[in-house]
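Researcher: Sequence recovery benchmark, item below. Answer with residues only.
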């Protein structure tokens, strides 16, 4: 990961605005993982308002202390195109993504009665990935990073609350019985936002042999690019394909009840 850590990603923003942005983002992630489509989509609207406040602040040279909803979001985003001294991401790309996300919030059966479509997995998935893109772009333009570096930071921003994983202090346990060691590892790694020590993962999953777990689970998962397993530092870090696999597993387990 880039030297910029997750905590410092939005350090330049006022505390209230930063909290509004990250709280909305984390609620989208949490609700999506729990298959709560309507709350996930509703928080897309809150994220839009925070993201707009950030880009408006970039253009104005100062930030509002808290997220501020413009009178007309579409018109306000179109006005951003007049900011000729701003990079294209700030004046065009981010505003247009905000408009698309806000449209789902307002006119797909989420924001009020009478929408065309009931809240559903398809729309919530669109909200999820548009939200990740928006937050990653904000990180990128605030810190002049590559898209890859920004995406890594965004994944680390998530305060993961994973169903079927119990945690208390330094202890974690997979509550769903009958899962393979690989699936248990995916759930446990999803519940963390950074590197996990090998000894901690083995302790959490209650495997009897680190050597066997290393051979049968960690190395194959590394080869499959589910996680990065550093055999020098003995740490594991979930990679994007692993995050996707773990999220699919959460959805499958939740669907079974």
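Model:
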């Amino acid at each position: 990961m880039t030297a910029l850590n997750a905590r410092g990603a939005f350090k330049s923003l006022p505390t209230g605005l930063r909290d509004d942005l990250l709280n909305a983002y984390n609620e989208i992630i949490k609700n999506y993982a729990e298959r709560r489509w309507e709350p996930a989509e509703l928080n897309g609207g809150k994220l839009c308002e925070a993201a707009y406040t950030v880009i408006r602040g970039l253009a104005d040279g100062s930030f509002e202390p808290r997220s501020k909803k413009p009178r007309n979001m579409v018109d306000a985003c179109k006005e951003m195109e007049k900011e000729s001294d701003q990079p294209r991401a700030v004046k065009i790309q981010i505003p247009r993504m905000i408009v698309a996300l806000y449209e789902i919030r307002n006119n797909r059966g989420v924001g009020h009665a009478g929408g065309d479509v009931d809240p559903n997995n398809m729309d919530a998935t669109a909200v999820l990935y548009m939200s990740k893109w928006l937050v990653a772009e904000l990180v990128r333009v605030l810190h002049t990073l590559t898209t890859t570096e920004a995406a890594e930071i965004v994944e680390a921003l998530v305060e993961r609350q994973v169903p079927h994983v119990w945690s208390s202090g330094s202890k974690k346990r997979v509550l769903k019985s009958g899962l393979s060691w690989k699936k248990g590892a995916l759930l446990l790694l999803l519940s963390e936002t950074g590197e996990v020590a090998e000894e901690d993962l083995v302790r959490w999953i209650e495997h009897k042999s680190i050597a066997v777990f290393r051979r049968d689970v960690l190395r194959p998962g590394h080869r499959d690019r589910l996680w990065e397993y550093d055999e020098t530092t003995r740490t594991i870090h979930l990679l994007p394909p692993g995050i996707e696999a773990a999220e699919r597993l959460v959805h499958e387990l939740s669907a079974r009840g």
